[in-house]
Design a protein that fits this description.
This protein has 10 helices and no strands. The protein has helices at about 10-20, 25-30, 35-55, 55-80, 90-100, 105, 115-130, 145-160, 175-190, 195-215.
């Protein structure tokens, strides 16, 4: 007699999403596309960040669920789209293989005793995975919030030796000091009719040009 294996909550969720998008399901879910869902993915991600910062277990469970729903929904759309033809199981398999490949110090014979050791050889691993990338800027999503993008670009510039010290000479010792300083800059821009977000993005575009130019001389 074959023992019946009970479905996990994740299995049940995948089945629920399939039913929502299937015949007799929900018209809204059925008509969604990868493109139409982008706004919701961004929104749900920000709500998850809020839940993490609030430190609420219940809110984190809820918001992680909403992000997971997006992953499963995109996968179900792909399963029904010619030329894509993948499922959430394919997504999971690709992620598992990526995690194993990115952690040879756990699944292989490479040695890494600290997180700094891991970061030091990740670039080599990524380069081997994506040989088509020729710039340290390749793969950086331009839609990132401007401050996060600035942090990422500064890190890449340091890797190629374009800048050695990104301190900038601005005196502060903690995030409690930094936050009001950033707010004051935005307030000053607003008082003068300037768009701080646009100004930083414009500067970052020029900075990326500078990085790419520097790469040609390496």
């Amino acid at each position: 007699m074959t023992e019946t294996i009970a479905a996990t909550p994740l299995d049940e969720l995948i089945a629920t999403v399939a039913k929502l998008r299937g015949p007799g399901g929900c018209p809204w879910d059925a008509e969604q596309t990868h493109a139409s869902l982008v706004q919701y993915l961004v929104e749900e991600t920000h709500e998850l960040v809020d839940a993490i910062e609030a430190g609420s277990r219940e809110e984190m469970i809820e918001e992680l669920g909403d992000v997971l729903y997006q992953v499963i929904l995109h996968s179900d759309i792909a399963a029904a789209t010619a030329g894509e033809d993948f499922t959430v199981q394919d997504v999971a398999a690709a992620l598992n293989a990526k995690l194993i490949g990115r952690h040879p110090h756990v699944f292989g014979d490479r040695v890494a005793e600290t997180s700094a050791d891991v970061v030091a050889f990740w670039d080599d691993l990524k380069a081997a995975e994506k040989p088509e990338r020729s710039s340290v800027l390749d793969g950086i999503p331009q839609g990132m919030p401007s401050l996060a993008l600035a942090d990422k670009l500064l890190g890449r510039a340091q890797k190629i030796g374009l800048i050695e010290d990104a301190d900038g000479g601005i005196p502060f010792t903690s995030e409690d000091e930094l936050g009001p300083m950033l707010l004051a800059i935005v307030a000053g821009a607003k008082a003068r009719g300037l768009d701080a977000e646009r100004a930083l993005r414009s500067t970052l575009r020029d900075f990326q040009d500078e990085i790419r130019e520097a790469e040609t001389t390496l």
